Amino acid sequence: MTLVHTHPVASLIFLVFVFCVELSVVTGDEPKLQGTEAPPREDALLYRKLAIPVEYLVTRTGHTFGGDLRIGDFNGDGQCDFLVYRCNHGAPRGAHMGGMKPAFMGAFELDGTPLWQVGEGGNHPSRPMSVAVKDWTGDGADDVICFWHKPQTGLNTDWQSLADVVVQLRDGHTGNVLREATSKAITERRRKDPVGANWVHQRLLIANFRGTPEPRDIAVKLGDTYVALDERLNVLWTYETQWVKYSQCPAYIPAVGDIDGDGRDELLTGYHLIDDDGSLMWKNKLGANMDSVTVDRWQGNTRAICSGFGHVMTAEGQVELSLGKQIVPHGQEVRVADFHSGHAGNEMVLRAFGHKPTVHLVSSQTNKIINTIELQFSPTNVGMEPVFWNGPDKAALLYNGGWLWDLKTAKGNPLPGVSPPNGGKVHRMGFYHAIPANLCGDDREELVLWDSTATDICIYTPKPLDQSAYRGYRAGPRQYNPRIMD
To answer: Are 236 and 228 in contact (CB under 8 A)?
Structure first.
């Protein structure tokens, strides 16, 4: 196990800082932020402000909006398209209001041309929900894998039950159902978390549990239960965790990746590493608030990276890094990329104090904190994403709440023309989410930004834009398994 060693005086100063930040959590005061006022990024171009087709919008309590978003090439023309969706059955009040069961979808092109729509109504998703986009039929066009709400006569269900949900494969060209399955491993699940926080973070992740040439399986996360499905929506295996209480449960959104190098994915929950066949590789309640996990490269090896108390774990369950409770009392989000050209390998960005702007930048070269940075305040203080703004061979920037941050210089700037988010005035999800993807020009990444309570999508590209350099949209795990929000 590797611990971070600092000078005693520096440690004392840091502990005072931690106390002040933790006190602000109790009192509700925000810590003083650095750089909350900054000019817009000069190298950022608002490539397109795309209106969601008006026929896809809905009005609830006087507010008109589209819903949550996924991206993919639905008609196979090499251009990115968009899918907006809404859900039924959310908690009646509090932080989990909205919907959990997809009930409406509408697909449209980059120029706003509608492609198809299915279902009707729906509400803001309580959180980013169980909808994924990937080419499942092999025709070169992306399809939709999703939960779908199917109310049944005589079946009385609410947000705490999945008895009225089916898993569907929908054709990307038309939205028609190609395959549908009803599995007791899913429909018999009910909320167990007494708070509901873990239950509302349901998600479908594209995985490769069977060692196929490309990912053809699905990892389903349902509160205390994980279900693996094959490409025909048959159940491969299930795993149920004993830990369900708020702040003491596994990650809200698990991660998939091949950690042991056998050509098949494992499922990482933060407290478990589950092998491709559903067997347990390790189980360890590493720390409280295990909110976020990822599978990525660390010191040249693929590792399990876990936000709870700041951990890096091997496939065998050995601890390679533990920042500890004092330094990471509430690991809200963790993201990994090469963020700093002055250090070899990847760095970890870890939101260390829950829903607060403070992040640690940790080097995989040294297993030590390079810097502690105060990002700008953003609604709920989640939604960080690495973006290869300067190209795939350059250090990534960090997106956070409408800003891009250079973590080497610890400076951030807002993107030009971003409208203020609705925030909690409309719904908890009312802020800008992001999916980085190459949508136009050269191989530098663009940012797709949307607010699920709004009616427009913003696409930002780095200057200068050369449209002739574009070679078409190609989805990878960061597009078909977007982290979106933890």
So the answer is: yes
- Three-state SS at 10: helix
For residue 241, give the nearest of 259, 223, 257, 229 by alpha carbon.
223
Q: How many angstroms separate the CA atoms of 254 and 257, rounded?
A: 10
Residue ranges of E strands in 109-248: 114-119, 131-134, 143-149, 165-170, 177-181, 203-207, 217-222, 225-229, 235-240
User: What's the rounded Cα separation, in Å, for the pair 244 and 252?
Assistant: 11
Nearest to 291 by CA among 253, 326, 321: 253
What contacts 377, CB < 8 A, 6 or more positions away?
Answer: 30, 33, 36, 357, 401
pLDDT band, residue 317 (cuts 50/70/90): very high
Q: Which amino acid is it at 40?
A: P
- Give Cβ neighbours of residue 113 (< 8 Å, ≥ 6 apart): none
CA distances (Å), 355 to each of 31, 176, 381, in order?
A: 12, 40, 5
Using alpha carbons, select from 223, 258, 218, 265 the residue that is nearest to residue 240. 223
pLDDT band at 424 (very low <50, low <70, confident <90, very high): confident
Measured CA to CA, the distance from residue 320 to residue 299 in angstroms comes to 10
Structure confidence by residue, pLDDT tens digits, 453-470: 999 999 999 999 999 999
CA atoms 320, 484, 405, 373: torsion sign: negative
Global pTM reads: 0.92
Q: Are 318 and 358 in contact (CB under 8 A)?
A: no
State residue 309 phi and psi, 5-degree precision. 60, 10
CA–CA distances in Å: residue 297 to residues 188, 294, 304, 348, 442:
37, 10, 9, 10, 26
CA–CA–CA angle 56, 454, 113 (5° rounding): 40
Residues 401 and 414: their CA atoms lie apart, in Å, by 9
- The fraction of the chain above a pLDDT of 90, given in percent, is 87
Average pLDDT over residues 356-379: 96
Please give the pLDDT value at position 17.
45
Q: Which two tokens stand for residue 282?
A: 């390790």
DSSP 8-state class, residue 377:
P
Neighbours of 49 (CB within 10 A): 12
Query: Residue 411 and residue 318: Cα distance in Å, rounded?
Result: 35
